[in-house]
Every structure is written in C-alpha cells, then in structure tokens.
Amino acid sequence: MAKRIVVDPIPRIEGHLRIEAVLDENNTIQDAFSSGTMWRGLELILKGRDPRDAWAFTQRICGVCTTVHALASIRCVEDAIGVDIPTNARIIRNLMNATQQTQDHLIHFYHLHALDWVDVVSALSADPKATSELAQAVSPSWPKSSVGYFKDLKTRLTTFVESGQLGIFSNAYWGHKGYLLPPEANLMAVAHYLEALDFQKEIVKIHAIFGGKNPHPNYLVGGMACSIDPDSDMAINIEQLNKVKQIIDDTNRFIDQVYIPDLIAIAGFYKGWLHGGGLGNFMSYGDFPESDVDDFSSLLWPRGAILNKDLSTIHDVDPRDMNQVKEEVTHSWYSYAGGDGAGLHPWEGETTPKPDAVPKMPYKHLDTEGKYSWLKTPRWNNNPMEVGPLARVLVAYAKKVPMIVDTVNYVLKTLDVGPEALFSTLGRTAARGIECKQTAGFMTHYYDQLVANVKAGDTQVFNNEKWDPDRWPSDCKGFGYTEAPRGALGHWIHIKEGKIEDYQIVVPSTWNASPRDGNGKSGAYEAALKGTPMADPEQPLEVLRTIHSFDPCLACASHILDMNGNEITSVKIS
Amino acid sequence: MEQKINVLGLGNLILGDEAFGVEAVRYLEANNDFPANVNIIDGGTQGVYLLDYIESADCLLIFDAIIPQEYDFKVYVYQKEDLPAFIHRKMSSHQIGLSELLSIAKLHGKVPKEVALIGIPPISMKMNVGLTKEVQQLVPKAVDKGKEIIMQWLEK
Questions:
Q1: Residue boundaries of the structural domains of chain B
Q2: Catalytic annotation on A69?
Q3: What pLDDT does A444 receive?
C-alpha cells in the first residue's frame, strides 16, 4: 500500500479575502466587513528596475489577468516617456484586451458564478427529454440539445457525483432552498458549464498569435513585439489572420446562442431576488481607444462616474488629478507619514506596512474599529466606488452608447423588469453578460480594422523613437489605465534617470473589497452585503452569490458572526 | 499518432521559491534536445486557463512548489499510485487547483494517460524575484528527474 501524501495548499498572489458578516435575529445581514489578509507590496519589487521591464513583473501579480496588468504598465511607461504607438499596435492591444475580457467573463459566469444559481445535484433528477425541449426553446440554433446528449451527460454526471470525489463541485450547498431552478434547467446549465470550459480554451489562442506565446504573451513599450507580413511564414500572415477570424466568429456565436440565453433563462427564475445592490456609486476609467489613448472621447467604453444611482449626471473622472483618486489607510494595516486618514494620490503614494497591527493567528474576529485589512482604501472625491462590468455598463447606458442601450433594454424587457433591477447582484451578473456580448463584438471590429490597415500596406507595429532611455526626460511621471474584467485598473509610475523611482497600482478588487474609510463609509463588498436575508447562516449561499458577482480576484474566507460575535460558520469562497 | 507530452511549470514568479516550477521549466527549456512533441510551458498561476495544456496532453509532467506532509528538503517525485488522487493545490486567485482541473478533464473525458509531479518544498515565499540559493541548487536535479520521466514516455 503506497503511503498517502498530502500536498497542502500554498497561499497565492492576491492572498485571501475574509468577509465578516453580522446578522440580526432574523438572519438578515446588518453589517459586513471585508478584509484582505495577505500583504502584497509589489511596488517595492519594482523600485530601481528598468521601466521597460515593469510589465513582465506586473503581469504576474494576478493569476488570470496577465494581459491587463501588462497593458496598464506599458501604457504608464509610454505616458511618462512620451511615445506614441503605431495604429496597428493600438488595434492589436485592443483586440487582445477584448479577447481577455470575453474569455474571462465566460469563465467567470460558468465556472465561478453559475453554481451559486445552479444546483448540480438537482440536475441528477432531470428528465433528459424535458431538458432537450427546454434547451431547444432557450437556444434554438445551438446544436447540442438532443435527448441523447442530455441523457449521456446525466449518466456521466451521476457517475462523477457518486464517486464521491466532487472536485469542482465540492464546497457547495446543494439542496439549499435558495436554489430556484427546476432540475431540467440545472442539467442544461451544467451541460453549458462543461461546454463553456471546453470552448474558452480556443478564445485565448488569439493571444498566442499576437503575443508570441500564451500564457504570458509578450508586450513591448512603444508598440507590440509581433511582426506582420501577409506572405511570410515567420510573421503573422493570412493563414493566422484567418484563424483569428474563425475564433472570433465562434466566440460571438457561443455568446449569442448559449451565454446570453442562459443568463436570461436563469435570471428569469431569480428576478425576485434583487439583493446586493450596495453603494450605488460607480466608476469607469473607460477603455478601447479608437485613436490616441489620451483621447478619452474616442473610448468605446466611456469614462465617467455615477453617484447615488443617479443616471442623469455623469461626473468627469481624471485619474491624474491629484485630488480625485486617493488612497487612505485609516482601517488598513499601513501607516502614512502625514497621518493615516489623509488620502494620497498614487503619484504621492506610500507603502509602509504596519504588520504589528495585524492580529496574531488564530484570531476570532477582526478589530473592525481599528485597522482590519491589507487592502488600502481607495476613494474617488472621497466616495467609495464600485468598479467592474456593472459600472462600465451603467456609465455607457447613462451616456447613451447606442449598442449598450439596445442590449440593456433587450435584457430588461425580456425579463420584464425596470432599470432599477440593475442595482443588484443579479444586475451585476447580467451586466457582465451584456458586456461580454459587446466586447466580443469589439473583437470583430478590431479584426476588421487590422485587416484593412494591413491591406492598405501598413504593417508597422513598433515605434523605436524612445526605446533608448537616453531620449527620456531625466525625471518623469506617467499614468496607465485599462478596464480589466473586474474593473478600473490604474498604474502610476515615477521614472528618475531611466529607472523606476516609484510605482503604485490600484487594482479593481481594491476598490471593491476595500475596508471602511476615515469617514466610516463602507467599501463596495461591505455595502452590497448589507440587508441581505439569509435562509440558513450555516450555509451562506447568499454571501457567495453577492461576493462572486463582483468576480473577486482573491481567495475568500468568509466568516459569519452573530450579533455577539460568535462564529457560526466559516466557509471558503472560491 | 505521435503522443503529445506537456511539461507545465506552475508558480508565481514574484513570490520567491513559489516560482520553482516556472524556473524549472525555464531551465529545462534552455537545456534539452527533446523533439517537437514535447511542449514546455510556463504556466504561472493561470488556473483554469491552463485546462487546454492538461486536456491536450497524452502525458503531463508538472513542476511545482509543494508542501509535503513529511517535510524533507529534497526533490519529490510523484507518479502513478504515489500521485494523490486529488492534489489540493491552489493555483490561482480563482483557487482552481490541479484537482479541479483534473476533475474537469475527467468530466470532459480528456484525462492524460500519464501524470507526474515534481516538487520541492519552498523555503521563502516572500514577495521577491528569484529563488533562494538552496532551492536554486535543487533545480538541475529536479529537471534531471523530469528528463528521465520524459525519456521513458518518449520510448513508449
């Protein structure tokens, strides 16, 4: 008998998110606290390095969003040293960014989030014939919908579940009364879950073509590292462009025929569960520039902020303004030389950890009166903001971007709900699907732009004008932004004598998962959980649903407390 | 048809010895004369995004930092019955571990015929670029063990 060896988990990148929720006697969440329990400090690694290499380090911050950190990084360096990139480079970056976002949303919906709405065990009692009829009604053009297909899946799934090694389906609350789908809808959703995981592998092959390899495609300050030559075997040629086109078409088809119909079908059962709205403040830096990255009027996802759910007023956002985006550390395990409550713009940012303030393990609960998170506390004009798909979709909707208005109205009309339904967990989940459809459309758009450009004889992808650090200002600052799948991402750099003097990153999950600020205002996760009734505190499905709807880029350990501070349950959110 | 051998290095490049898997495949990449059906992949911490490299493999070799139950500082090789049925290994911010990936592959009916894991226990996982001297010294040995396994697969 071989000795059984256990390989323990090793903590990863963003560390862990801990949620503490306080319940009243009716098991409704009264208050919630969000804490990042692992320190990062990438800023300190970058100091003194060559700014042209920064992207290769920043893309390793996150396990899944390599492209967005690389993009924000090269954009901030280009901004600092003052170099314009060729049109093809802009188009290829946009195409790669759209590819990342589309794939990420698809994975998020099916793999991370669907099981908060779909009961896998219930699927085992589905009737394959009724499931086939349902699937054909929901997705009439999708071929995988025969009785035999669902019968076979049900058999495979039953064997899998009966083996007792649930793997992907472990750590869930099967049978929870918060699950509202009939068995047939559950079986259909599980089928699409597996199809989506199979299909998504294709999408990212676009990164390998334009980035030279995948995972971790290559980026380059001043352009892109690939070369384009329609007739060469050694460059991006017609054959590869045709392959890209095929992937884009398949992606759009999958989203239109599977993802969006699933989203609407599932949402139809849950439209009475409109909890999780939260702050009502939303911010987007915008992305997908149609001309220079500084020409904000050309962004396909517009820039702006919404306060208090008021869609009639879009506030201007300027991340370079020293007074707008600031991070404070009143409730964060850091200290600032000038006082923890004084917000600092990232160009003036300080990263001085205060590990002595962190409670020693094991601790029962956080000292939420004092410091309680490794995440800093970013605020825009002193307001906590939600970032991500819902923020982008609302800003675009409020700005009346035609395609977004059409898709949002179609979804609302099909579900027979008003725009106020968007301010919810379900609204956040729907916004991600709406955005995914839009972004897949961008892929086609950028492909067409690229092909037209190449046909016109333009194959330039790199501008070497400022490659040599001798041509840089001796002291310069830059800002680079992107809208990552999870929301507004900013990189701020200070370069001195050709080396990185300071580097500050404010990631989307820091906006959303931030602790309270000095004014006592909650962050987005904290606010979203308040007021949510829980069917069974031992099985906090509702908490998972809302936290997952933000697509947290952290591993979460959620601790539910009763009003006396006794721990009822502890649950991993993954 | 020629079998496809995927060699996957896992780990975070900016967390000290956590980067062992990535550094090992980089070393292997620079020191091998394997044929084209051996694919060497820097998988980073990409989690579910690595599914293709698992499902497309006939034989899968993984390099990774591990915490074994009995902690000796050495190169660990897990193969066949030594390989835990479910390796509770977290690979990404989405917490998709090898166990989850293999279970998805199982549901897809695409589990590699052979799976092997080569690991070392990390000494430091502080945010830092570069392995500790001790772990660095084990890289060539770990890669040699990997090469032996790949050679066995190639001869089949």
A1: 5-155
A2: yes
A3: 98
